[in-house]
Amino acid sequence: MFCHTEMVSSQPVPIAENGKKKKKKRTRATDHVPGKFEDLYKLTAELLGEGAYAKVQGAVSLQTGKEYAVKVSVK
Predict the structure, then answer these.
(1) Residue 25, Cβ neighbours under 10 Å: how many?
(2) How many domains does the chain have?
(3) Would you say residue 26 lies in a domain?
(4) Domain assignment of residue 20, yes or no
(5) 71 lies in which domain range?
(6) 10 FRET partner, CA 20 to 30 A, in 4, 24, 48, 74?
(7) Would you say residue 16 lies in a domain?
(8) Do 65 and 40 touch, CB atoms closer than 8 A?
(9) Residue 71, annotated ligand binder?
(10) Region Disordered: which residues (predicted)?
(11) Mind listing the pLDDT tens digit for each residue in 15-64?
(12) Dist CA 18 CA 14 (whole Å)
């Protein structure tokens, strides 16, 4: 049977001065890439998917030659 007096005491967890935890800033792919999309990638004719508000198209990096899928939103 469990008895609370047998529990090992723990140390308090430090909390930020304002009483809230700090959130990590999420890094986005566009945060570190200078230049326009057109200067970095070439869209292919390959249509991978299509929805009501966007389509997904193939693209190739002009720097590395890697293939990517790009979501293109319709304005």
Answers:
(1) 7
(2) 1
(3) no
(4) no
(5) 40-75
(6) 24
(7) no
(8) no
(9) yes
(10) 1-30
(11) 666 766 677 777 666 666 678 889 999 999 999 999 999 999 999 999 99
(12) 12
